[in-house]
Specification:
The protein has 315 residues and is mostly helical. The chain has one domain (5-314). It has 14 helices and no strands. It is globular, with a radius of gyration of 21 Å.
């Protein structure tokens, strides 16, 4: 029996089972499904984001956000490269590459996870630490140092994992505890993003709520990784970030004066020049189109899911 996309996702998430191989599907079909999953992930982010906004507004809990600050302070090109290319590649490697038990993938993923997590939590954030050191050392040199550490670490870990007794233990672990591995990767992915907020005890208390969008996103991205493969997961993550980042990049195209006006309480559309007015209207209609597409696609998935479930119950 042919199942809907949401049925397949829900069925898998009820009891994730480990498989060594990934069923190869046509690229265009895979990307269409991944885009639909992205829209569902954005829908869940919108819903949880409303809850987070309500709580944080009432409590005055949060002061700034690292990603927002980074996009605001860096050039459009830097924001695009790090948010849409570097971040998906790093995060998919660190949190989802090792969902398939192959020695090299586990070595790259595990060391990437440790490296990414340590550099994010100890200095404050991966990007902050990179740019902080880059002020003292040439960025190319700094990148070469990071790369050298990464290569040495992955190579060492690979030879350890290749040992027969380690392979035996890993095979047992993936077979017996794969559900914990699968959902654990999503929770760890969510926890990483708490470093986007400035430390305070209220942030610590609100952590389970603040990381919900990333946990839901991590679960769906993990599903994409095990069902469609690592590189298609990276492309899916790129598209997800691009869809959410586009309005911010659009606003950065406006003049500094217009951006300041946009942040002021007495903002008036007519106070903008014609170019900036066109940009802000384009951003507004893009956001409106994205919201309608996300809501429409998600409702369609949910309706098809319940119709199929009712039909199955009647049979």
């Amino acid at each position: 029996m042919k199942h809907s996309l949401l049925q397949n996702i829900v069925t898998y998430l009820q009891n994730p089972q480990y498989k060594d191989s990934i069923e190869q599907k046509p690229f265009l079909f895979s990307m269409l499904q991944i885009i639909r999953i992205n829209l569902l992930a954005i829908f869940l982010s919108f819903v949880t984001g409303i809850v987070i906004a309500f709580i944080t507004t009432k409590t005055n809990a949060l002061d700034g956000h690292a990603v927002g600050d980074f996009i605001e302070n860096e050039s459009i090109l830097a924001a695009f490269i790090f948010s849409c290319i570097v971040a998906p590649l790093l995060e998919e490697s660190a949190f989802r590459l090792w969902l398939i038990n192959k020695p090299l993938q586990v070595a790259i993923g595990t060391f990437g996870f440790l490296f990414y997590y340590i550099s994010s939590f100890i200095p404050g954030s991966f990007l902050k630490s990179f740019f902080a050191f880059s002020e003292l050392i040439n960025p190319i040199t700094m990148l070469a140092v990071y790369l050298a550490i990464y290569v040495v670490g992955v190579t060492t870990l690979y030879f350890i994992i290749k040992q027969k007794f380690v392979q035996t233990k890993l095979a047992w672990l993936y077979s017996a505890y794969y559900k914990w591995i699968f959902f654990g990767s999503a929770v760890l992915f969510g926890l990483l993003h708490i470093t986007n907020y400035k430390f305070s005890w209220i942030v610590v208390l609100l952590t389970p709520i603040l990381i919900l969008p990333q946990v839901f996103g991590g679960i769906l991205l993990s599903y994409v990784r095990v069902k469609y493969g690592f590189w298609r997961g990276v492309v899916g993550h790129f598209l997800y970030n691009l869809l959410l980042l586009t309005p911010s990049l659009g606003i950065k195209l406006m003049s500094p004066q217009s951006q300041k006006l946009l942040e002021s309480s007495n903002f008036n559309l007519n106070s903008l020049n014609q170019t900036d007015k066109s940009i802000i209207l384009s951003v507004f209609f893009y956001f409106l189109l994205l919201a309608c597409t996300v809501i429409g696609s998600s409702i369609h998935l949910i309706v098809i899911y319940f119709l199929a479930s009712n039909k199955k119950t009647q049979v």
